[in-house]
Amino acid sequence: MTSEPADITALRRDLGERLATFRKAARVTQGQLAAAAYLDRTTVSHIERGRTRADETFWQTADQVTIAGGQLLAAYHQLEATRQEQETATRSRQLAAVRAKADSLRGVPLAWSAPPTSADDELAAIELARRVAATDVGEETLTRLELAFDDLAMAYPVTPPDELLERLRQHLSYVGTLLDGRMTLAERRRLVVVGGWLSLLAATVHIDLNQPTAATARLRTAASLAQHAGHDEIRAWSFETEAWRVLTEGDYRRALELSRAAQALAPTGSSVAIQATAQEGRAWARLRQPRETYAAIERVNQLVSPLARPDRPEHHYRYDPDKSVVYVATTLAWAGDPAAEVYAREVIGRLKPTNGNGKWPRRLAAANLDLALALLVTDRLDEACDAAQQAILSGRVVPSNHWRAAEVVDAVEARQLPQAGDLREAYEGLRRGEVGENGLPGVVNDLGGRSRT
Fold it and tell me: Domain 6-81, what architecture?
């Protein structure tokens, strides 16, 4: 950290001590706070010791995670106000000194033997403009990269995740190579933004493949690139995606915090604002809080109601209004509400394949799992087993979603139904990767899934 006035350093240390106090009181580790802020633990340690500066986004996150009630953010704003006042005063003193020196030099002849000509000035200006505009990237390259990302985001629902991940790695490697070249500031921002989107989608695929370490690293990269580019939408998607990851791991409180952080960053009316609200509702459902669950469902409906269906509804980062029915079915099923059956059957009716082909096979598999859970609530056990079997044998339940299928299997076994053995056998085959698409045998590995709802 560059040198700064002693009183500012003292304020920064005091803020760091406050952070450590609130963090310990909330029983949050430095590692947990670092994960929430997409930093490493060492950086958080330096912030608490006043050795490293942190931006407003960090203090917003820290305030939420440590339940500081706005105290940390207010202290940060006070520190920044004091720092800016001092910087303004310093600049004023420096300007006054320069002006005084300039006044003392007025009228003193200069000792230049050959002053530059107007032609020299013109050439210097042209050369500066040429160097600023010099680029190894160009409009066509950036446009094609942006279109390539859109293609990958649309391929996400139907492409095997290991195959999609390989394509994403190739594009990210290319972006990394281009970043070493010359480009304009506008081109660099576009390149950083597309790198953020690609990293975000790669993180999502890692989650589907149940690779949490790689997913976390990709999410941190996406958030970092987004922060450099000032792109709040990607930052919000990073929080939303992490919310989904911890939700699949059973950390529902953390999923709630992350989904709210995503909503705070999300542009008004954006797809990520809707999806983050949906994730909040799912977290409330898993926490068995019906009032909050239904309130979140209502907020999603309000956000979705004015939307028209997008031209490319399969694009993972463009919210398809039809998806809200899938969301309601899942949320109600997790809340133990029998009403989930109506929504799940509506989804299945929409998505049931014709002539052996279906456009949204992963949504169909999820809807069958939701239907199975709803039927278990109303003790329609045979139908529940049939719905679960269809989902499992479809081969479209991703590794990160195996727990959803396992819930149905466990419930069937707990009731000692005759179908429990067959259902367990099918589930174990799915878990080992022995069930591929359409229920056919697959390669035995951990990559046999598809995508998240």
Answer: Orthogonal Bundle (1.10)
